[in-house]
Amino acid sequence: MSTQKINIGLFGFGPVGQGFYKLAGQRANNKINIIRIAVKDQKKERTLDRSAFTFDYRELLHAPDLELIVEATDDERAGYEIIKTALLKGIPVVSANKKLLANNLEEFVDLSIKTQTPLLYEAAAAGAIPIITSLDSYFNDEVVNAIRGIINGTTNYILSSMLQQGISFETALKNAQELGFAESDPKNDVDAYDAAFKLALLSVHAFGKILDVNDILRYGIRFIKKEDHQEAEALDKVIKLIAHVFPSGDGIEGLVLPTWLAKEDDFSSVSAEFNAIEILAKDSGAHLLKGKGAGSLPTGSALLNDVIKALSGGYTYKKLNKAQNPDGIEIEVILTLKNPSEINGLLEVQKQVEANGNIKITAWINTRDLKAQIGYLEENEAGLISTGRIRKVIKQSKSDKLSCTEKKIQNEVLN
Ligand SMILES: NC(=O)c1ccc[n+]([C@@H]2O[C@H](COP(=O)([O-])OP(=O)(O)OC[C@H]3O[C@@H](n4cnc5c(N)ncnc54)[C@H](OP(=O)(O)O)[C@@H]3O)[C@@H](O)[C@H]2O)c1
Q1: Do 50 and 328 form a contact (C-beta atoms < 8 A)?
Q2: Quick one: pLDDT band at residue 355, thresholds 50, 70, 90?
C-alpha cells in the first residue's frame, strides 16, 4: 500500500456497510478515506452526520475522485449498475451482494478480466471465512475434487435449535427472527436460495466453471419436522443443510439439500450460526475451514481484507472455462408426501411407512428428474432429506445399446 489514502465510495449502510465503516476507521493503517456513503431512505435515523451520506447512488458512482467501490447494498438493480459501471471505468469493486453476483457472475467475471479491474467478493461467499482467497491462490494449481459445506448460518441455527430444544421449525424460525439470526422474510435462507448463490461463487474458483444458480438442485428446511430429527438421531445421524459441488462428466453438479450426516462427520458438530467448508483436493486431501459466515463485523472484515487485496490485484481465475451440462447423478432421498406415486423417476423404492397421513419412502432418483419436480414438492409441502448417498450414472456404450433390448443403467456407488 502506498502512503497515499485511497478514496472509497461505500454503497449501503446496513449492518455490513456499518461493520466495514467501523473497521476501516480502526484498521488499514489509516489509509482509507471513505468519501461518501450512498443509502436510499431519507427518513432513516443514522449514526453519522447527514453530510456523510448521499441519497443518489449515481452521484457517488460518478464522483471524480472515486478510486474504489465497496458495494454492500441489497438492491439487485442498483447494485448491477454500480458494479458494471465501475468495472467499465476501471474502478476496482469489492462486493458482499451474493444474489446480485451469483445471478450475473459470467458477465461480471468477463468484464473484470477484459478491463483488468479487480472484482472481489469474499464477503459474499461465506462471510469471514477466507474460502475464495484460498481456492484462488493456494489451490489454483491443484485439482479440487469437491467442495462441501454448511454455508447458511440461519438454517444451521434453526436446525440446531430444533434438535437441541425439541421444538418445531415454526418456533425455531420465530426465535431466530427475534434474535436477529433470520430476516422477517426468511425465504432466501430457509428455501436454500442463499446457499445456492454462495455455491455458484465457490464453483468458479474451485473448478473454473460458472454454475447457473438455476441448475443447482436446491431444497430448503421449511418442511423438516421434529420427528425427522428424532428419526435421524435414532440412527446416530443429524440433519444439516449441506451444500455440495463437484465435477460430473463435462459439467458441475451443485446440490443444496437437508442431508443426513453421521454424528462423527466434522460438519455434525458445526452448530448455531457458524459456517464450515471442506475443500477436497486431489493431492493434499481434505481441508476444513470454519468461522462466522455472517454478521456486521465478520462480513465488514472480509470487505476490508478484500479492499487491501484489490490494491494489489484481482482474482486469477486460473482454472476458468465454460461449464457444460453435468451428466446427472443419482442420490438417495427420503420423501414424505401424500402421493409419492406422482413423482417421476423414483428408483429402488426401499420402504413405505405411513406417517401422519403422509407416505414416507426412501428411493434413488436422478438429480435432473428431481430438479424438474422441486416446484411440485414445495407446493405440496413435501419433506425431502438426502441420506447423503450419491452414485454416478454410467451411460450405456453404443454396443450395449445394440445388444440390449431393455434399457440398462449401471451404477457405481460413490459413497
Ligand atoms: N448481513 C450479513 O451478515 C451479510 C453477510 C454476507 C453478505 N451480506 C450481503 O451484504 C449486503 C448488505 O447486507 P446488510 O445486511 O447490510 O443489508 P441491509 O440491512 O438490507 O442494508 C442494505 C443497505 O443498502 C442500502 N441500499 C439499498 N438500496 C439502495 C440504493 N438503491 N441506493 C443506495 N443504497 C441502497 C440501504 O439503504 P437504507 O439504509 O437507506 O435502507 C441499506 O443501507 C446484502 O447484499 C447481503 O446479502 C450480508
Answers
A1: no
A2: low
Locate the ligand 1 atom nearest the alpha carbon of residue 100 and give its number: 45
Is the C-beta atom of 76 inside 6 A of ligand 1?
no
Collapse the DSSP code of 391 into the 3-class scheme (helix H, G, I; strand E, B; otherwise coil) and give the result.
strand
How far is the centre of ligand 1, averaged over its atoms, from the C-alpha of 16 (Å)? Answer: 7
* Closest by CA position to 10, among listed 29, 33, 41, 44: 33
Measured CA to CA, the distance from residue 330 to residue 365 in angstroms comes to 5
Instruction: Identify the pLDDT of residue 323.
Output: 58
Ligand 1 atom with the shortest distance to the CA of 39: 34
Task: Give the residue whose CA is nearest to atom 19 of ligand 1.
Answer: 14
Per-residue pLDDT at 399:
41
Buried b (16+ CB within 10 A) or exposed e, 236-251: ebbbbbbbbbbbbeeb
Question: What's the whole-model pTM score?
Answer: 0.91
Q: Which of 381, 386, 333 is nearest to 358 (CA)?
A: 381
For 20, residues 6+ apart whose C-beta sits below 8 A from its C-beta are 10, 70, 72, 299, 300, 303, 304
Candidate from 60-69, 220-229, 267-276, 403-412 with smallest mean pLDDT:
403-412
pLDDT at 392: 85
300 within ligand 1 shell (Cβ under 6 A): no
Among 10, 11, 16, say which to mutate for ligand 1: greatest number of ligand atoms within 8 Å of CB: 16
Distance in angstroms (rounded) separating the CA atoms of residues 54 and 42: 9
Least confident of 59-68, 74-83, 176-185, 404-413: 404-413
Q: Which domains does the chain have, with CATH numbers?
A: 6-126 (3.40.50.720), 131-292 (3.30.360.10), 329-413 (3.30.70)
Ligand 1 atom, smallest distance to 13 CA: 43
Whether 329 lines ligand 1, by a CB cut-off of 6 Å, is no
Residue closest via CA to ligand 1's atom 30 equals 40
The closest-lying atom of ligand 1 relative to the alpha carbon of residue 298 is: 3
Instruction: Ligand 1 pocket test: pick from 18, 73, 100, 120 the residue with the most ligand atoms within 8 Å of its Cβ.
Output: 73
Rounded to whole angstroms, the Cα distance separating 11 from 14 reads 10
